[in-house]
Amino acid sequence: MKQSQIFIPTLREIPADAELRSHQHLLRAGFIRQMASGIYSYLPLATRVIRKIEKIIREELEKLNAVETILPIMQPVELWQTSGRQHTNNKEVFTLQDQHERKYMLAAAQEECITSLVRDEINTYKRLPLMMYQIQTKFRDENRPRHGLLRAREFIMKDAYSFHDTKASLDDMYNEMFNAYASIFTRLGLQYHAVIAESDLIGGKDTHEFIVVSPNGENVFAYTPHGTYAATLSLAEVNTVYETSEEPMRELTLVATPQQRTIEAISEWFDMPKKLCIKTLVLLVDGDIVVTLVRGDHDVSLAKVKVLLQAHTVALADEQVVAEVLGCEVGYVGPIKLPLDIRVVADHAVLAMRNAVAGANESGYHYQFVNPERDFAINISGDIRYIQEGEVSPDGATTVKFGRGIEVGHIFKLGTVYSEQLAAIITNEEGQQTALQMGCYGMGISRLVAALAEQYHDDGGFTWPKHLAPFHVHLIPVNIQDEVQLGLAEDMYGLLKSYHFEVLIDDRDERAGVKFTDADLIGLPVRVTIGKKAAEGIVEVKVRTTGETYDWQKEELIDKLTEMFRN
Q1: Distance CA 444, CA 407 (A)
Q2: How far is CA 390 from CA 214, 224, 350, in A?
Q3: What is the pLDDT of residues 418-450, one digit of tens each?
Q4: Is the whole-model pTM more than 0.85?
Q5: Could you state, in order of their start, the residue ranges of all structural domains in the chain?
Q6: 3-state secondary structure of 27
Q7: I need a labelling partner for 461 at 20 to 30 A (CA). Which of 112, 117, 322, 557 fits?
Q8: What is the CATH class of 53-72+107-237+402-453?
Q9: Are 104 and 77 contacting, i.e. CB atoms less than 8 angstroms apart?
C-alpha cells in the first residue's frame, strides 16, 4: 500500500484530552479520530489491526463449531420489558422511536434477541447444543466516556451465545469457551488473568472476567503470585481466621458523640483502633432493608452480600430511607435494638469482636463495649468484606497481591435466566418440557485494540507484534526525487509483495525526519530504509522493538526477512 494513497493523518502534538499514552498514540499515529464524546472512527490502520484480531477470534470459535450470524442492532423495547432488564439497565441504553411512535432500543447486549430467535425455531433437544456468535457494533450510554476506546459509547464487540438441554452440557461448553478465550489472548500476546467475577446486570451465576494487565486499567483484582487464584476485588475470598479476645465483656454504655459520623472520627473520639469499631451499612436487598456489619478497618462488598443472600439487586439505602426506617442519621446506625423485621448480616470478623463501639440508632450517640450475641442478634454471617492486599490466599498457601488491568472478555453461565422469562422451552430427552440452558460469552474488540496499544508502545510510538501490525514492513525511500532510490524502492516493494509481505511504502515527498517520526509512531515491526547506499544495492533494516539496524544487500533482504518473521 502506498502511504500517499492511504489515510494516515498523523499528529505532531499530543492531544490535550488524551490522558493515557495508548490513547495519545492511537490519535497521533492516525489510527482513530473522535467524532463525539465516546464515539470514534477507526481509520485504515486500526481497521487492519481489528481484522487481524477478528481472524484469530473466528479461528478459535470455529474449533468449537460456533457459527457466525448477524443480529439486529435495533430491538423492540418489548423484548427488554419481557426480560425485566429495561428497568434495571435503562440509563445506559439508547432509545428511539420510528415514525409510527413504536419504541426501540439500540443493542447494548443481545441476550433477549438471540433467545427469542432460538425460542421460535428450536423446540427439541435433538438440535442442541448450539452456539452462535457475531462481531458487531454495540451502544452504551456511558455516563462518563473516557480513555479513548477503553470506555466508549459506541464500540465493537464479539458476543456469543450457547444453548443446551442440560446443565452438564452448558458446563462443558463453558469450559471449552474458557480455554478458547485463553488461546485467543495468548495468541494476541497479551498478559492477562482470568478472574472470578460478578454477573452484574447480565444475570446468571458462574462467571469469569479476562483482564489484561495494565497500570492504567480500571479493574482491580486480587491474585496469587503462583497463578492458582484470581478474582475481582469485590469477590476475592477472605481466608482469615479470627480469634476472640479473652478480655471480659464490659457493661454496655451509651456515649454522646456529637458530629462524629465516620469510623475515623469515632476511632479518634474513643481513642481506639478502627478494628474495634463496628461499621454498619444499611442496604436495599431486592427491595428489603438489610443491615450489614463489618469491622471498622474493613469495607462491605455488595457483590458478596448479593451472593450470600442469593439476591438479584443490592444497593446502598439513601439517607431518607435510613431516617424513615431507623429514625437517625447515617453515621449513627448500629445493630442494637433494630426493628424485628430487619435482617442483620455480619462478616465473620464481627463475630470475634469484644467490647466494640457501634452506632446507637440515635443521632449523636454511640454505644461502647458492644458485644455480638449478647447485645444484638445476627441472622446470617459470612464473608462479606473486601480482601486486603497481603492477606492469606483462599488456598492458605500464600498471600494475595493486587493487580490492575483492562477487562477485555467476560463469560457467563446464564442458566435459565432469559429462557424462562422469554418462554424458550424445549422437549428434553425424557420427553419433558424444560427451559433452555444458556451461556453468554462477550469480548470487547475495540477495547482489545486499546489493550494492545497499552502493551505495545514506547515513547516514540507503537511496537506492534508481527502478526497484529497493520503492515509487516515500512519501506521508506529517503528522497523520492532521487531516481536510484525511488527505483530500488519500487523494485523492493513489488518483490516483498510477491512474497506475501504486507508492505507500506512511504512514497510521500517529505523530509526524512518526518518519515522516520511517522514510522516510529505507526510502529510496524520492520523499517527498510533506502538511502544513500541505494546505488550499491544496500538497504538499512531497523527492528522497531529493539532498535537494531542492519545493512543488507537487496538480494538477501527476502531471505533474512522471511527468517525474521518466521521466529
Answers
A1: 8
A2: 20, 10, 20
A3: 999 999 999 999 999 999 999 999 999 999 999
A4: yes
A5: 53-72+107-237+402-453, 253-382, 471-566
A6: helix
A7: 557
A8: alpha beta
A9: yes
